[in-house]
Fold these 3 entries.
Entry 1:
Amino acid sequence: MNHDSPSASKPAALAGIKVLDLSRVLAGPWCTQMLADLGADVIKVERPVAGDDTRHWGPPFRQDDAGQDTREAAYFTACNRNKRSITVDMAHPEGQALLRSMAAQADVVVENFKVGGLRQYGLDYDSLIALNPRLVYCSITGFGQDGPYAERAGYDLMVQAMCGLMSVTGHADGEPGGGPLKAGVAVIDVFTGLYASNAILAALNARHSTGQGQYIDMALLDVGMAVLANQAAGFLSTGQTPGRAGNVHPSLAPYQDFVTLDGNVLLAIGNDGQFARFCAAIDQPQWAQDARFASNTARVQHRGELLARMEPLLKTRSTAAWIALFEDKAVPCGPINTVAQAFDDPQVQARGLRIEWPRTDGDRLPPVAGVANPMRLSGTPVVYHRAPPALGQHTEEVLQEMGLDAARITALRTAQAI
């Protein structure tokens, strides 16, 4: 799939929604990219010269046609497609006035400054809601707008540690490589972006009946606690603190990776029917009749005895051979891919999950590659119409839409307000 996909010509779900994006790094930009993918007009406001921090978070950097690193960090491209970038100095009075004018015409503002950080610029919720009562204003912070940690800076890694996620991720103490681990992706930032976009869509829908916008207080710590999901539910139900178990599921068996003749294979058996089919496929149907293994609860209780039987057997064939054996028998099984192998997977390719946009800002860089949005709406599909923008690429375009003429824009540049 590319930017010229048929979805680009169909109506967008959020067409007509204007978003003023004052956020940086990942959680806020992930939220606004979601809105942009759904068709909202997202104006990304960046600092003159420096821009969003993630423009410089490399390596890895994008490469030019000769295979040489540029100074454009790949990180930025992950969460800023479909947006227009303008540069405004919000510390400058004229920059503040510009942003207030934009907020007065916007449907949504998203920001992730520290608590109260935008009040000095007249860009806080109370100031902007007075100009635009229909405004939906979303603040994203590490710890929320109140509580003893409200003034603290919050980062994904810190919250992964504080919320307990790292305590249930990684191998158990005493095992090789044992100890708490962070996830390989900044999952709290990404989940916060997703929760924030959901909250914004809810607020926009509520506005249809009330005519009023509202304030949304999103906190990384709140999200971190929420996404503990079954681990939190287990603790709250029993009072027992869950621990790390590597790739083993605490409530399902067999649901983990196994060593094969040439690597590893992942089995994700989630019910008794799947286990019976697994046993039949490996010519051990009696396992499914054994009282120790006949039900999932019994298999979890007798996990060690089951693994003692499974592990030697699974070492007798290659990963590909096991996958081939199970794939037509409704036994969930798969490889443990690298990222490169995942993009080479035929199902990933068939679903068009790698997308590209040509660059149009004259920088002669190769097309920007990205990952497709996984939401597939039949009537109002996701749109891919803009590559992640160059810094300030759309400043003049946006200001002209606001009614500023060339002389006024030049004056703002001379004053270093933009």
Note: The domain at 6-227+351-414 is CATH 3.40.50.10540 (Rossmann fold).
Entry 2:
Amino acid sequence: MRSSLSRRGFLAAGSGIAAATALPALSGCSSIAAADSDPDTLLVHTQLGTTAPGSATYTAVVDLFQKENPGLGVKNLVNGDDLAQVYETSRLARKEPDVVMINLYDKTLAWTDVGATVDVKGYLDDWGLRNRVVPAALEAWTDGKGRLRAFPYFATNWPVAFNTTLLDRAGVGAVPTTGDELIGAARKLRGKGIAPVTVGGNDWTGQKLLAQIIQTFLTQEEAQQVYATGDFGGRGAREGIEYFVSLRDAGVFADKAQGLTSDTMTTQYNTQAAAMQSAMSSALAKVPPEVAARTEVGGWPLAPGAAHEKPTIMRSFTLIGFWISPNGTKKLPAVEKFLRFMYRPDVVSRFITESGRDMALVTDTVSKDFPLVAAAQRLGDSVGQVLLPDLYVPPTASQPLITATSTAFTRGTSAASVRSVLESAYRGA
């Protein structure tokens, strides 16, 4: 896989321009800017502190950590979707935070390979934390050279949510499990003025659903090859695209899905304007109780001849991990205390019970106040599983694939055109 970051460019000491652009990103608070050189202050770069589920719990457990470790402080640098870019800029100036909390996707796929973060496998073993991690999570976070990119933490299930009350109102007798049933349900729902499947066709949620449907006729091994190379010309990939187009043009997706976002999607489902959504755990956790009580979770309906025996969902163990930076290796005693604390069973349980998060760690705790998250965890072998392609898509193709997704969700776009825009996203990757 070719990185969008050159080894020379990333590891260079950085020009005056690079340093000048990095410093403001870290200097929103003078105490944070100074923390990089303080051995008793751990600087953590995180997305938890925005509106991301788990933010309140994270703030609370960090406060607890500091109370239990007097003299050792934690300063949080909070960013949203721009975290990866901000971190890379700070790394060029050698002012990067000590620990980074982010998912394995797009730019971050290259970090360990170019030295922006370090292999943590030895630390995981030295600190006795390997048995705390779900084996599948360790596999997902390990690169092709055997390096463990980060300490796994958040995971996610990604089923389909069905509002059974809306289905009943439209005369749909049961949750659809086949493509024909889904098309029939969509017609009946539209007859009642209800959007069938809402989806963020203009962002990552649509990209993932499109990938899921394309995999209808692909094994996971075949899907890995397709998404690593961008070759959608094989029979299985072409049939999957054709299946997607048949569903789209039959009115399965909400009107103007090509312009909708993840926020629009969750709003439509949570206000009962739409009957179905493909929803990861964090979205399931946000479904209001009165809607959750009317929701059943399951898999995406299949077409005849599918490579899977049961409707499919996606699962991922790479939603958030703790990455250690080169600066972090200078503060290993502090990093070790922090990660041991975050891996503690009582701390892990708080993210599950208070925030409805799925975890990549071994735990018996159940999300009692987040029934849909718990229901997705219980699906087990009752559904099939397709590949979440994030680990295989070259970083330079990630954003172009979202643009291609919007084109794919535009009604009337032919299957051949959908294939063309998907493959075009890989040019230069």
Note: Residues 1-32 have pLDDT under 50 and may be disordered.
Entry 3:
Amino acid sequence: MAEVHAVKSLDKVKLISHLLERNYSQQVADVWNIGLNLALRISDLLSIRFSDVCEDRLLLIEGKTKKAASIKLNQKAIDIIHRIRQEQPTHTYLFQSYRNQRAMNLPPQPLSRRFISRAFADIGAQVGIQLGTHSMRKTRGYHLYKATKDIARVMKMLRHSSEGVTLRYIGITQEDIDKDFVELEI
């Protein structure tokens, strides 16, 4: 499995959202946009239920770590969630699969990780970047680091335990660090 990357250009982030909506659906673009704003692993993102959203917070137990997460939602995430809720008042999941609606007597299911992964890879190929389901977390971490230069803050957001892991995860290379030393003269 090829390593996926953070999207370092904000224009490319918007282009990816546009292409996902145009080539797939608004729902797939919403996965991308909410994923960028919540920095969750894809399994946790797709498993969000409307009952997990309490006003301006998302409360869930992370699947990988089994730790409780309480994430304050920003206005963009709130707006998207509110729109989806209005459009799909009977849905259980934020990103509910429409396939199960057609099947009689089957419980609701979220979109599959495989479907989202394929959509992201397809759009990534179109824009020339290795894009995958982890790209949303990596992109959020990368842009937070670039804005703050506070690796501890990024580690906390991503719930990592090592600076080295976090720097590698968000795609900060020695070249980036060297550039920061050259550009900042005191």
Note: The chain is about 55% helix and 5% strand.
